[in-house]
UniProtKB/TrEMBL annotation, chain A:
Domain of life: Bacteria
InterPro entries: Bact_solute-bd_prot1, SBP
Protein's name according to its UniProt entry: Extracellular solute-binding protein
Signal peptide: 1-22
Family statement drawn from the similarity comment of this UniProt entry: Belongs to the bacterial solute-binding protein 1 family.
Keywords: Signal, Transport
Automatic annotation (TrEMBL), chain B:
Domain of life: Bacteria
Lineage start: Bacteria, Pseudomonadati, Pseudomonadota, Alphaproteobacteria, Rhodobacterales
Name of the protein: Sugar ABC transporter permease
GO cellular component terms given for this protein: plasma membrane
Sequence similarity: Belongs to the binding-protein-dependent transport system permease family.
Keyword Transmembrane in record: yes
UniProt keyword terms in alphabetical order: Membrane, Transmembrane, Transmembrane helix, Transport
Length: 438, 315
């Protein structure tokens, strides 16, 4: 009996040791399920070869990404060692100690934030905003941009019809209002025997879609969250006359220039509408542009890209993410090793070449960068004027309030733009009061 | 002397154990058996309920473990009960409940009444009718989303065929006031067979001799229906209403897949709103108060209803 007990204990000890050893030789990276994630899997093979650490990946579809990952973090889950989380999570990640502060690590490994585009460092890494406290390494630069059917725009019959209808030349839109005019021109038009529509835009209600879409117009008109940054004084900023006009514009774009039934559309639906030849233009994140450019049906010569048109100012809605080390990980050293590897200029160059959007200046400042892809110059232009949503720890409540207000007004036809924005201030005030910030 | 199974078990009990148990009263033995279940019930039902009540008086947020939890008294309840949005969600829930239950009872009973006859293919037809309720709500939600699609959806196409209204001119799940009815149509399609099965059980439990006696008394078919069939099936119908009422009060998955609560807040049921408050906005204290209010509502209504059901059964 005693011998049996000893044997069982020994086997148990060996098994535990091998499990622990396997864990220290494995890293799980969590991100959204989309094209760049597949590129990262390929890129990470180099890391596996160099470090001997096996990489595992947990990719969640976008509509569930925030829900799933924030639940994971809030419950102290150990699923992810590394997390490429949305920029808006940085406040919560830092204040709730979900993410490890990386300053000491960066200093020890001579990783300088000056090597990365300032807008991305500000948006993806710092908390409080702009302070030199880093909780992530900029991993994936992104902004909301546009793409269009270049082959349609270049057709003589369509150009002539547009000139006749509007008196202007058909070209890449230079302003939001020109974009609307072009979209309305294409709406319901017959092209090659098929009815096509103006533009596919974000109207999704459940996660962040309509906010990310409408802010493209709001920022271009000059929308601000606060009169003075950090003061939470929103009256007159959030509901300024410019903001009201921008929101009315977005509703008009939705009502008069989008395909039928696109009342709950986000990234996937926008891509579907464009790839199936239904729309002349579509908005989406730059992250999808490499895949679109290579699409056998609508890519190549048939497609071109443009930065979100300005109106009162040039502006684009920020996307993108930083890579953070999850504080609940049992392999923090391995995770830091990955970040050290990922921060290298050579790796960043390869990351861009594979379809990831590097934020490293060694890549962005390369003289050949602008010509390296048909959307590269637009990406640079977009990143110069990006604006992001609140990055407060209570961002989820702030975001869902905006989703509700915008969807109610734009899609469900309830109330006016002024009422929607006034209501939004009331909702946000309540959240900040609960947070003790007002 | 006859040896009963109890005697056999008593003899099989080891003497040591028998000595230990012999001193216990029947009540003590009963407690011994019931205690583990009671403990489990307390741990997984009663304790969370009490904890939720406690949380409902605080500003606790589950995603902010570092933040100090403050006692806010009745503020969460006051906010909920004075919130226009929440009253609107309650109205949406009531609209969904009333219409789905009414339609399901009418259609379910009619189907059961029609199918409760002997004809060729009866079994096959019954199986076909109950197919929708065998599907997962996730599957149902997804494929009805396609059916309702304005450009390629079969539903809009059929409407165009019948009424001449162009298929792409209206969106069943979009703005225009149709979304509320769209979710009612899908729920009715899916769950009418369930009500039908319960009614069928009720109809088949009525003995034939009662109808034969009515025939002898020369009662018309109409009279038989109203004075025999309906009263005897009523307890079954009421049970079906109770089941569907409770189920639809907490309806979540299918509506989330169909509309996500939209457009705007047009189909935002209380259960979906509660989930958003609790697990997307992480307002744990507030959502606890919300959950308690919903619990009291359902519990109160269900209690009244069960009393009515018992009265009907006693008649």
């Amino acid at each position: 009996m005693k011998a049996r007990l000893l044997t069982a204990t020994a086997v148990g000890a060996v098994l535990s040791a091998s499990v622990a050893s396997a864990q220290s030789n494995e890293l799980t990276l969590c991100w959204a399920a989309w094209d760049p994630a597949n590129a990262l899997v390929e890129l990470s093979k180099d890391f596996e070869a160099q470090s001997g650490i096996k990489m595992k990946f947990e990719f969640i579809p976008w509509p569930n990404f925030a829900d799933r990952m924030l639940n994971e973090l809030n419950s102290g889950g150990q699923l992810c060692d590394l997390l490429i989380g949305d920029s808006q999570w940085i406040g919560g990640g830092a204040e709730n100690e979900h993410y490890i502060k990386l300053n000491d690590f960066f200093a020890a490994e001579s990783i300088s934030m000056d090597d990365f585009a300032p807008a991305t460092v500000y948006a993806y890494s710092t908390w409080p905003k702009g302070e030199p406290n880093y909780y992530a390494l900029p991993a994936m630069g992104d902004a909301n941009g546009w793409f269009y059917r270049k082959d349609w725009f270049e057709r003589d019959d369509i150009k002539a019809a547009y000139k006749e209808a509007t008196g202007a030349d058909l070209r890449e839109p230079q302003s939001q209002k020109e974009l609307l005019q072009i979209a309305q021109f294409f709406q319901g038009r017959e092209i090659d025997g098929q009815t096509v529509y103006g533009a596919s835009i974000f109207t999704e209600r459940g996660s962040e879609g309509i906010t990310m879409g409408a802010t493209g117009a709001l920022y271009a008109w000059g929308f601000k969250y606060e009169n003075t940054p950090g003061s939470y004084d929103m009256e007159g900023a959030v509901n300024s006359p410019q903001a009201v006009e921008a929101l009315e514009f977005y509703k008009e774009l939705y009502k008069t220039a989008t395909p039928p039934g696109y009342d709950n559309a986000y990234m996937e639906q926008s891509l579907d509408a464009f790839k199936s030849g239904q729309v002349a233009m579509a908005m989406n994140w730059f992250a999808f542009f490499p895949g679109l450019a290579a699409d056998p049906n609508v890519g190549g010569d048939k497609i071109d890209f443009f930065v979100n048109p300005g109106q009162n100012q040039p502006a684009s809605t920020l996307g993108g993410q930083g890579i953070s080390v999850v504080s609940y990980s049992d392999n923090i050293d391995g995770a830091l090793q990955y970040i050290k590897w990922f921060a290298q200029p050579d790796v960043q160059k390869k990351w861009w070449s594979m379809g990831g959007y590097s934020c490293h200046l060694a890549v962005l400042n390369d003289p050949g960068f602008k010509d390296s892809a048909p959307f590269a110059a637009d990406f640079l232009a977009a990143m110069e004027n990006v604006y992001d949503f609140w990055q407060e720890p209570a961002y989820a409540s702030l975001l869902l309030a905006m989703q509700d207000r915008l969807h109610n007004y734009v899609v469900a036809d309830q109330g006016t733009a002024q009422e929607a924005l006034d209501g939004l201030i009331a909702d946000w005030t309540e959240v900040f009061e609960d947070e003790g910030k007002l | 002397m006859t040896v009963t199974p109890i005697d056999r078990m008593a003899r099989a009990t080891p003497p040591k154990l028998a000595r230990r148990v012999r001193g216990l009263s029947d009540r003590a033995i009963a407690w011994l058996f019931v205690t583990p279940t009671l403990f489990l019930l307390l741990a997984i039902n009663i304790f969370p309920l009490i904890w939720t009540v406690r949380l409902s008086f605080t500003n606790y947020a589950a995603n902010r473990p570092a933040r100090e939890v403050e006692w806010v008294g009745l503020r969460n309840y006051e906010r909920i009960l004075t919130s226009e949005g929440i009253w609107s969600n309650m109205q949406t829930t009531a609209h969904f409940l009333i219409w789905t239950i009414t339609l399901q009872v009418l259609l379910g009973f009619t189907l059961a009444w029609l199918i409760n006859r002997k004809f060729k293919g009866n079994d096959l037809l019954t199986t076909l009718i109950v197919l929708p309720m065998m599907l997962s709500p996730a599957v149902v939600g997804n494929f009805w989303t396609f059916l309702y699609q304005p450009q390629i959806g079969l539903f809009n196409y059929v409407v165009e065929l019948v009424t001449g209204t162009p298929a792409s001119s209206f969106s069943m799940l979009g703005p225009g006031g149709l979304a509320k009815w769209s979710i009612i149509i899908v729920d009715t399609w899916m769950w009418t067979p369930f009500v039908m099965l319960i009614c069928l059980a009720g109809l088949r439990s009525i003995p034939d001799y009662i109808y034969e006696a009515a025939e002898v008394d020369r009662a018309s078919k109409w009279r038989q229906f109203w004075t025999l069939t309906v009263p005897m099936v009523l307890p079954f119908l009421m049970l079906a209403v109770l089941f569907r009422g409770i189920e639809n009060f907490k309806m979540f998955d299918m509506v989330v897949l169909l509309t996500g609560g939209g457009p705007g807040n047009e189909t935002l049921l209380a259960s979906i709103d509660l989930k958003r408050e609790a697990f997307e906005k992480w307002r744990t204290g507030y959502s606890s108060a919300y959950a308690i209010i919903l619990f009291v509502t359902v519990f109160g209504l269900a209690s009244i209803y069960v009393k009515a059901l018992n009265k009907v059964k006693e008649r």
